[in-house]
Write a structure and sequence with these properties.
6% strand; 61% helix; 209 residues; 11 helices; globular; Arc Repressor Mutant, subunit A; 3 strands; 2 domains; mainly alpha; three-stranded mixed sheet
Length: 209
């Protein structure tokens, strides 16, 4: 029998991420200390695996017993932003999909790939990946902190005579890149977070703290 994933709406994902941050990052540290949270709050071992991405097209995965996050060694050592997102993504599975790991049976990356191919439909798998991606983005780029940094960027842009209405001269791209550096994530993650919260569509006015 294939696994059936309950689709979680945005509001539920926001609540889950907010609950997580309240408990695991109460001081609102930015960048969010995700590695420390994984290792010390959740007591998960982070295990670098050489060639994981090249051989299996997988950056990281959570073991069935939910005791380890195995991550591509090169990403672990050389791609900090991707590494941080991968940890938050797998933590999303840990929190949101415990029943998935009870349903699937696997002991290594090969059997994991086979399990998700045969034990869960493509549609259901897209659900759980969407959940984990949204959770990771909300955790690493929290809504209130994102709005605060964006407000600072708006003020600086206005002083330079730049407008954020429309996308003239790629101003939005520049700002998303700047915000990405603040949160230690990729610009693509910030772009998705901006879309998720609809921040570019909001009027260009002061954001209340």
């Amino acid at each position: 029998m294939t696994y059936k994933a309950a689709f979680l709406p945005k509001e539920v994902l926001r609540e889950k991420a907010a609950e997580f941050l309240d408990k695991s990052n109460p001081k609102c540290e930015i960048p969010v200390p995700i590695e420390k949270i994984v290792e010390f709050d959740f007591r998960l071992d982070i295990v670098p695996v050489p060639g994981l991405q090249d051989s299996f097209d997988v950056v990281a995965y959570l073991t069935q017993d939910r005791q380890e996050i195995r991550v591509d060694k090169y990403v672990f050592e050389s791609r900090e932003n991707r590494y941080r997102f991968s940890l938050a993504h797998e933590l999303g599975h840990f929190i949101l999909h415990p029943d998935l790991f009870e349903h699937l049976e696997f002991h290594d990356i090969t059997s994991w790939k086979d399990a998700i191919t045969n034990g869960i439909s493509e549609k259901e798998y897209s659900f759980v990946e969407y959940h984990a991606n949204c959770f990771a983005g909300l955790v690493l780029v929290p809504p209130a902190e994102l709005e605060g940094v964006l407000f600072q960027c708006r003020q600086k842009s206005e002083k330079c005579g730049l407008t954020l209405d429309g996308d003239d001269d790629g101003v939005r791209d520049i700002i998303e890149g700047y915000i990405a550096c603040e949160f230690l994530v990729s610009a693509a993650v910030v772009h998705r977070r901006m879309e998720f919260d609809g921040l570019w569509e909001r009027p260009n006015k002061s954001i209340q703290a």
